[in-house]
Amino acid sequence: MLNKQVMSPLLSIRALSTCFQIQETVVKAVDNVSLDIYPDEVLALVGETGCGKSVLALSILRLLPENSLSEGSILYKGFEILEGSNEELRALRGREIGMIPQSQASSLNPLLKVGWQVMEVLRLHTKVRKPDAHKKVVELFSRLQLPEPEKRMDYYPHQLSGGMRQRVLVSMGVACNPNLILVDEPTKGLDAVLRMEVVKLLGRQAAENNRSMLLITHDLSVAALLADRIAVMYAGEIVEMGSSAGVLKIPRHPYTQSLLDSLPGRGFKPIPGFSPSLSRIPPGCRFQPRCRVACSKGAALHPDLREADPNHYVRCFHAD
Fold this sequence. Notes:
Layout: E1 11-22, E2 25-37, E3 42-46, H1 53-61, E4 68-76, E5 79-80, H2 86-92, E6 97-100, H3 104-107, H4 114-126, H5 130-143, H6 149-152, H7 162-174, E7 180-184, H8 192-209, E8 212-217, H9 220-226, E9 229-234, E10 237-243, H10 244-249, H11 254-261, H12 297-300, E11 306-309, E12 312-314
Parallel strand pairs: 3-8, 3-9, 6-7, 7-8
Antiparallel strand pairs: 1-2, 1-4, 4-5, 9-10, 10-12, 11-12
Helix pairs in contact: 4-5, 4-7, 7-8
Pfam families: ABC_tran, oligo_HPY
GO cellular component, one term: plasma membrane
Main location: membrane
């Protein structure tokens, strides 16, 4: 891993907040998040479903509905994404920042052949001719070990297995050789064998092509295998962030500890209670009602994210 102290971030997020106006209710899905992603780095964003992980990724690409509002700063190579024009954003998406979405069923058009769908990504962003795009997609399918790549070009999504469809999504995300790939829940709904297959595939893509990756997952085992650093998200905010080894082996936040204890190999202990509603966020520590070491201070005061150990950040009074 390169020394980040002498590197500039590829992507730098500062005080990002994204909320949704739903009738009379304001839902704050991402709240004052700051993080960096460096060149050739895999940063995993982990947390329970509904904590704001996917909204953060969609905020980066400005692919949110009209009832959303994002504030703060998202700098990509010095370009402020939140101030970019539609034309600038179209040039950025796919070409500079790719995305591999989580749902195979909704992300692939069931009425179009998969080869054509990947070709369209190439033709939109690189302006290559159709024969050249066809050739490149076949090469891409082959590199991703899709069986009989030339033949699969003419398949519809329903004719492919789950693993094959996942490879097609990866092909779409990496087709234009983006510097940064946003990968959203790549193993969701997959069985153990297919999950490991996808993890190996993503690991090869990151290692062989020197790409940076924001890996969004609720699966800590996937994060452990792929990530250089891990950021733990709870109720819209980062509660812990550090090296993969540091967060997984010496977790400082009670939520991270509880997530690890909920794994089958650690006793399969469920976290009691539920995450707070993002439309009614409590004033103090957001994890306090579920915390096994909750302190009275956390009931009223909201802890800041601070450096508890070198390059290891935690949002908890108990960690003081």
